[in-house]
Specification:
single chain; 173 residues; alpha+beta; SH3 type barrels; 2 domains; 5-stranded antiparallel sheet; 4-stranded antiparallel sheet
């Protein structure tokens, strides 16, 4: 069996969620769970101001597009391509869609390499390199997407948050 990759499908404007639902229903009906692994409409939180009132809403990161994690073969290509609302795969040739690279997936925040770390929120660490080298602080937040931690350091008598990359962290024993 081939390796699963991420592909991008172009849809009619405003039909992203409908296409996602249709593909998921087709996966269920045709028993394609082992070939189409995930259907995604990436969303992001945005703060909108209307009539002076701030409101947090979710917006589509890529309007008009749906991401599919799947094993490409003729049957799956046919099913996805003929889903109502799909205009085609993104790529130079509609017969041979081009999968997204790992670099493209990471830059979009969709694929993150699993990384295990030996520290957690509340641990005291020493910064091993960079501008903050030899600074000690307590971990307040861990962001696996950015591969960074936010620590509190004492600057001029005040607690100040500082973001440090995972590679610069050394846990104090």
């Amino acid at each position: 069996m081939s390796e699963a990759n991420w592909y991008v499908v172009h849809t009619y404007s405003g039909y992203e969620n409908k296409v996602k639902a249709n593909i998921e229903k087709t996966i269920e009906n045709r028993k394609l769970e082992d070939q189409i692994l995930e259907v995604s409409v990436p969303m992001q939180d945005v703060v909108e101001v209307k009539n002076g009132v701030k409101k947090r809403v979710q917006k589509k990161m890529f309007p008009g597009y749906v991401l599919l994690h799947m094993v490409m073969n003729d049957d799956v290509w046919y099913v996805v391509r003929n889903t109502r609302g799909v205009t085609g795969f993104v790529g130079p040739d509609s017969k041979q869609p081009v999968p997204l690279t790992d670099v493209e997936m990471r830059s979009m925040g969709i694929k993150n390499d699993e990384l295990s770390v030996d520290f957690e929120i509340g641990d005291m660490i020493t910064v091993a390199s960079g501008v903050w080298e030899n600074t000690t602080g307590q971990i307040r937040k861990i962001d696996p997407h950015k591969q960074s931690v936010t620590i509190s350091v004492d600057m001029f008598g005040r607690e100040t948050p500082v973001e440090i990359g995972f590679s610069e962290v050394k846990v104090r024993k």
